[in-house]
Amino acid sequence: MPDDLHCAAKVTADVVGGRWKVEILHCLFKGTQRFSELQHAIDGVTQKVLTQQLRELEADHVISRQIFPEVPPRVEYSLTDFGRSLWPVLSAMHEWGLRHLAERNDPPTAPKAAGEP
């Protein structure tokens, strides 16, 4: 792999890497979400880690954060146009994951519903 391609692939991996970022993006591809909706949809994520990973995605211009001047303040997260451009990347990762599971004879597991053990 050429060095510049390796570097660019690493940048992409750094942006979507992280324990919960792919799940956050998956939720936001469905539409704008409030913090509590994201936390409820992503089983096992802590408030601290969700906040950290949302901030990283915002710093990378993948998501936008909108604060509404209400009491209490309402905050919504959505994908930017740049963030929506990750769809083919994540779709390719999904397809590769399915092929890898098939290669290992390991069926894919369905995501757990919120609150499910």
Oligomer category: single chain
SS-based structural class?
Answer: mainly alpha
CATH superfamily: Winged helix-like DNA-binding domain superfamily/Winged helix DNA-binding domain
Indicate the low-confidence ranges by residue numbers: 112-117
What's the CATH class label? Mainly Alpha
Query: Would you give the CATH topology?
Result: Arc Repressor Mutant, subunit A
Q: Count up the helices.
A: 6
How many beta-strand elements? 3
How many structural domains are formed by the residues? 1
What is the end-to-end distance? 42 Å
Q: Give me the Rg, rounded.
A: 16 Å
Supply the CATH architecture.
Answer: Orthogonal Bundle
Helix content: 40-55%
Strand content: 5-15%
Q: Largest sheet at a glance?
A: 3 strands, antiparallel
Mean pLDDT: 89
> What is the molecular shape?
globular
Q: Could you describe the 3D structure shown?
A:
The protein is mostly helical. The chain is built from six helices and three strands; from the N terminus they run H-H-E-H-H-E-E-H-H. A three-stranded antiparallel sheet has the order 1-3-2. Strand 2 and strand 3 form a beta hairpin. The termini are far apart. The C terminus is likely disordered.
Structure summarized in a few sentences:
Helix content is 55%, strand content 12%. The chain has 117 residues and is mainly alpha-helical.
What tags apply to this protein structure?
12% strand, 6 helices, three-stranded antiparallel β-sheet, 117 residues, Arc Repressor Mutant, subunit A, disordered C terminus, 55% helix, globular, single chain, mainly alpha
